[in-house]
Amino acid sequence: MNETLNNNDYKILGVEPGADEKEIARSYHRMKAIYSEGSLSTYSLLADDERREMLDKIEKAYMRVTRDYSRSKASEDNAHHEIEPANVTNPDESPGRYLRTLRENMGLTLKEVSTRTKIRSTHLENIELEKYSQLPAPVYLRGFIIEFARALSIENPEGLASRYLELMQPPEEEGED
Fold first, then answer.
1. In 3D, which of 116, 117, 83 has the Cα closest to residue 100?
2. What distance in Å separates the CA atoms of residue 128 and residue 133, rounded to the nearest whole number?
3. From CA 34, how far away is CA 92, in angstroms rounded?
4. How many whole angstroms separate alpha carbon 15 and alpha carbon 3?
5. What is the C-alpha R_g of the chain?
6. Residue 97 and residue 49: Cα distance in Å, rounded?
7. How far is residue 51 from each of residues 130, 156, 157, measured CA to CA in Å?
8. Domain ranges (residues) in the chain
9. In CATH, what number does 2-72 get?
10. Half-sphere exposure of 142 (CA within 13 A, CB side)
11. CA distances from 106 to 52, 70, 113, 123, 152 (A)
């Protein structure tokens, strides 16, 4: 039944199942323009309530299709991840893995968190994987980690960011003054 629903959503948007993200977005905007108020395409063909109903269907179909697309893309991405999912519950040991575990337990994709936080998913992924060499400057990173933690409803996002940044620093040599 879900497959039929998806196929119907694709029909509403005027794209084939398996269309890429850009094609889906283009079609969505095109369909919204066709059914928008004052559109010459549908002005004399549809009553105002029919037009609004179709716009609502287009919006809901787009949301379902993009959510499904994000999930399938996340599944592909997770299949190629460098770190196996871990049940890390101690943020002091590995704050990046801790964030990843919480995100996955909440059923969120990196793209969904990226949309919520307005932080590029590549930054979020590098934070989770603790790829320090590929992260932005600490001043930006601190803000990114705090926003990431807030999106996951972590109690002390500032503390997590501080711990993350501590782990990023090279260990100090003993005996240096």
1. 83
2. 13
3. 53
4. 15
5. 22
6. 49
7. 49, 47, 45
8. 2-72, 95-168
9. 1.10.287
10. 8
11. 34, 15, 11, 19, 8
pLDDT value of residue 45: 81
Average pLDDT over the chain, rounded to whole? Answer: 80
Tell me the C-alpha distance between 93 and 88, whole Å. 8
Contact assessment for residue 58 and residue 35, using Cβ atoms and an 8 Å cutoff: yes
- What end-to-end distance do the CA atoms of the chain give, in Å? 69
CA-nearest of 163, 146, 70 to 111 is 70
What CATH number should be reported for the domain whose range is 95-168?
Answer: 1.10.260.40
Q: For residues 68 and 160, what is the distance between their CA atoms, to the nearest angstrom?
A: 31
- Other C-beta atoms closer than 10 Å to the C-beta of 48 total 8
For range 41-65, the mean pLDDT: 83
| Residue ranges in 14-120 assigned as alpha helix (H) | 21-34, 48-79, 95-105, 110-117
Q: State what percent of residues in the chain have pLDDT above 90.
A: 32
**Tokens coding 71:** 């999930």
Cβ-contact 160, 154 below 8 angstroms: yes
pTM: 0.49
Q: Which of 99, 97, 104 is nearest to 83 (CA)?
A: 97
Residue 24: DSSP 8-state: H
